[in-house]
Amino acid sequence: MEKDRHYPGGEIAKVDKVKNLSSCVKLCKQNDNCVRVLALLQRRSCILKNDEHEAGVFKKGVVSVALKWKEAEESGGCLGQNVDFPGGEIKRRMNVPGPLRCVSICKFTKKCVRIVFVPNENLCILKDETHGPATRQSAIANRNAVSISLKCREAKRSRKNEKEKSTDCDSALIPLLL
Q1: pLDDT on residue 5
Q2: DSSP state of 87
Q3: Distances (CA, A) of 126 to 60, 85, 130, 148
């Protein structure tokens, strides 16, 4: 559980009039795509998130609970927090203002497939395919590191584009259901 931490993007649904954090977690567990819940307890609402959400940022009053991080990270998932993928380092860049900027740098760096970003230091580490498996047992992981795989993000975008082409009617209905 993280206090004052928001994860933009990847919204599945927003639910109002929830009793407590446990109610939000229960709702998330009932949805196969839900990997994280953001609870806005003052407003008595919560937001269910899928694994396409972005890295965490400070936001007062938000409580975040990750439910399925381990599965995603161990399989080389899109997003991981407090995790490192040792080895495969292409280069390090200091003074990068956030993980999304780090992702942009990676996109324009030959052979870059993953970033590991250390928020408190604004450190961006670019990785190639030779990186090792996810670990929480490293000096980088212990510094609140955020890992994002570009290969996974691109594969999801490709699948999403194919799905949108075949289900235009369904995608038009989704905002009405939320």
Answers
A1: 81
A2: S
A3: 30, 11, 12, 10
pLDDT score of 8: 87
| pLDDT value, residue 136 | 79
Q: How far is it, in rounded angstroms, from Cα 98 to Cα 94?
A: 11
- The residue with tokens 């497939």 is 113
Asked whether the beta carbons of 97 and 128 are under 8 A apart, the reply is no
**Residue segments in the chain with a per-residue pLDDT below the cut of 50:** 69-76, 153, 155-178
3-class DSSP assignment, residue 143: helix
pLDDT given for residue 75 in this prediction: 39
102-121 b/e (C-beta count within 10 Å ≥ 16 → b): bbebbeebeebbbbbbbbee
Residues 6+ apart with CB under 8 A from 103: 115, 148, 150, 153
Taking the C-alpha atoms of residue 111 and residue 89, their distance in angstroms, rounded to an integer, is 10
Non-local CB neighbours of 82 within 8 Å, separated by 6+ positions? 136, 141, 142, 144, 145
Q: Which residues contact 130 (CB under 8 A, 6 or more apart)?
A: 87, 88
What per-residue confidence (pLDDT) applies to 20?
A: 85
